[in-house]
Amino acid sequence: MHWQYTTSTPPQDIGQLKEMLLRHRGLATQADQEAFFHPTSPLEIALSEVGLEEKKIDKAVQRILLAKEQGEEVVIFGDYDADGVCSTAILWEALRAVGIIAKPFLPHREKHGYGLTIRSLTAVLEEHTPQLLITVDNGIVAHQAFAELKKRGIDTILTDHHVCESELPCADVIVHTTQVCGSGVAWFLARALSKESAKQSLDLAAIATVADQMPLLKTNRALVVHGIESLKKTKRVGLQVLMARAAIDPQKISTDTINFVIAPRLNAMGRLKHSLNALRLVCTTSMERADELVDELNHTNEARQELTMEMIEHALLQASRWEKEHIIVVASTEYHEGVIGLLAGRLMEEYSKPAIAIAVGEKVAKASARSVAGVNIIELIRQVRDDLLEAGGHPMAAGFAAEPSKLESITARLETLARQQITDELLAARLTVESELPLHLLTLNTAEELQLFAPFGQGNPEPIFASPPGVVLMATEIGREGKHLRLEVGFELESKRLTLNCIAWGLGSLAKELTVGSQIELAGCLSINEWKSRRTLQLMVKDLKQTS
Predict the structure, then answer these.
(1) pLDDT tens digits, residue range 501-522?
(2) Which end of the chain has fewer CB atoms < 10 Å from its terminal CB, N or C?
(3) Rounded (5°) CA angle 23-28-32
């Protein structure tokens, strides 16, 4: 893997190190830096800072209050992923705070497909008779469904963050921005309805912002910083039980807790079953019910993990076919459409190419796509729009539906477009490294200073540094089946000596190659290992190179 250094000049002290990291994140002014380290409470952020229009928020609020006054039935139409579940909960709680008990509707992935379609709208109207329907985390490309709602005389409020097309649906009110996730948009509408309810749902806004891979700068950073503080003392018994079962210390909750514990379990329900129980989990006030729901989420997540591994093994059998292509496209009647997004993500990470995984059904094929930096996957997909039934998403993650008979044509067209528009340089496997870190900065104090830059995520990645050349003192496999690698590496410069403990996830196979005494260079993140009240420096290795 090529190490791409953001700067060639290593910092010489903590001050230079922090200045370098701020510069790399585009935080040049004192005001930007102050906002980064001390984010404003989201309760005080102006709507204009998020790309939302006050007039539209006011219009949405007035229509909601009219529904209360007239005793109308209100339906919140959400989505089946973590962002959609949290969006629905945020708005449902805000409506309840102003006296409306809304009816949530989360589509079933296989029965209804993604978003507000005619199929899902039919299901809504079979269950409910709304005078007002509000979408959260979807709807911005649902032209047919909104036209049908207007025809039936049902008022609509559309809230979404996905990329819109040239024309907007005919909703009565559209509250849209791409600067925050779907839950972020719903949260700002909730704030206009009830500040107290919005304050209580900051934990959900943080979960969704991280889970939906939003850039953790500006408003998103504020939502996550304040939201994680809210999550640490959350009164949601469902989240309390879920984290307790995973042995999470509430005071150590971070973006990793969301990425690896909370979000996968919420998402698993929408992938394999129905996301309604994920919604129930975040909203329940019953400890007994929370226990039951956490059991279900955990079992479903385990099934999701097994299914994903089976699909990856199947997809890798096709690896030779896309070796020379600039995009990966895999399809099978055996793929479960709830897990194709995970499959596309794994293939993209493994091969450093945009990847599309397709679950082929009898009448419809569903696709999920993940992309590499610099390749706008939704724009690439929209170039074959005439062959698709529907398409939507973000520059880095998208999806589409098509007739199975057209898949061969779609695949051929996408491969041709990828060869024409995606350069070899964009596909080169690379690791972004902030700089080399001098030996005198490989300290516990440096690791502590770096924690000030948390929470880490898209737009604010955890800093990766290259080490000076060192010598392997010990290399051993750890973990189940020896998948991971533990290293001790010795460094010496003039009179300074250092032994650094290192962990490399997924690199256990290298243990036999790294003989004691061999020269090595490392790239990784400095972290703090805490054991029995003792804190030591540790490097979480992202890549390594043997130099002798």
Answers:
(1) 999 998 898 998 999 999 999 9
(2) C
(3) 115
